[in-house]
Specification:
globular
């Protein structure tokens, strides 16, 4: 498949993401410049981490008005797959492609550490290489990663299976209502939400960095036990979904 990775002024994870797609997955991946409206006929667009336009005003607030975002909005409206990572998640919320918003971490400090995440829903293009309840280890690094939304929106996200990843303890447990969750929730996100999908199930935003959890060369912490790195499963899930769509289309064309 063919991936596109957006580069805004201030992006700093675009090259690492391209590295994983090209050199770990072995796929075609092209950079998409923020001033361009040409998405190069890609199968999936990734908005990477960083500090787009210096994070002036609010994180993602200026990037939302770029030429490439107009093209991505149209791409998503026609069913194209879009993944936003960290700053990319912020941009997608600012653009109205995902519900809610990302605010300052509850600690008011920048956080860079490994997080444990519980997989909440797998019937989607983004985390289908997992089972519900699986616990992943993927790094986070952000200053504005606290996910917030009104209670009605949060209830709707839960009801419709749009919460895909949630911060948790290494054993998969979470704090009960009223208990302190700071031991595992790095930013204070409401309901421990780490990643959400839109209602049409083709746009996904997550604060953790799957590219840093996909290749040891992009990590500064110890590598997990042998097996497929957890961050890589996100990219593999998308690739498998696209491959399945192509196979179904080929079968349909022969009928």
């Amino acid at each position: 498949m063919k991936w596109g990775v957006v580069s805004f002024p201030g992006s700093n994870d675009d090259l690492g993401t391209l590295h994983v797609l090209r050199n770990v997955l072995g796929h075609e991946a092209v950079p998409l410049w923020h001033k361009s409206s040409d998405l190069a006929n890609v199968d999936c667009v990734i908005l990477p981490g960083g500090f787009s336009y210096g994070d002036y005003l609010r994180c993602g607030a200026i990037a939302r008005f770029s030429a490439v975002m107009a093209a991505i909005t149209d791409f998503a409206a026609h069913g194209g797959l879009v993944l936003g990572i960290c700053n990319g998640f912020q941009v997608l919320c600012e653009a109205g492609l995902l519900p809610g918003a990302l605010g300052r971490n509850r600690t008011l400090s920048f956080i860079c550490r490994e997080a444990t995440l519980r997989v909440e829903s797998v019937a989607n293009p983004f985390v289908n290489r997992a089972l519900v309840g699986d616990v992943w280890r993927i790094p986070v690094k952000h200053g504005e990663g606290c996910y917030v939304a009104d209670e009605a929106t949060l209830d709707q996200l839960e009801r419709d299976g749009q919460v895909l990843l949630r911060y948790c303890r290494p054993d998969g447990s979470r704090a009960r209502e009223g208990e302190d969750a700071s031991d595992y929730n790095p930013n204070g996100s409401m309901r421990d939400i780490a990643g959400v999908m839109n209602a049409t199930r083709n746009v996904f935003g997550m604060m953790p960095h799957p590219e840093h959890g996909a290749d040891p060369s992009l990590r500064e912490v110890s590598w997990p036990d042998a097996g497929v790195p957890d961050g890589l499963r996100v990219f593999q899930s998308i690739a498998g979904w696209i491959a399945d769509l192509g196979q179904r289309a080929a079968v349909d064309s022969m009928r």
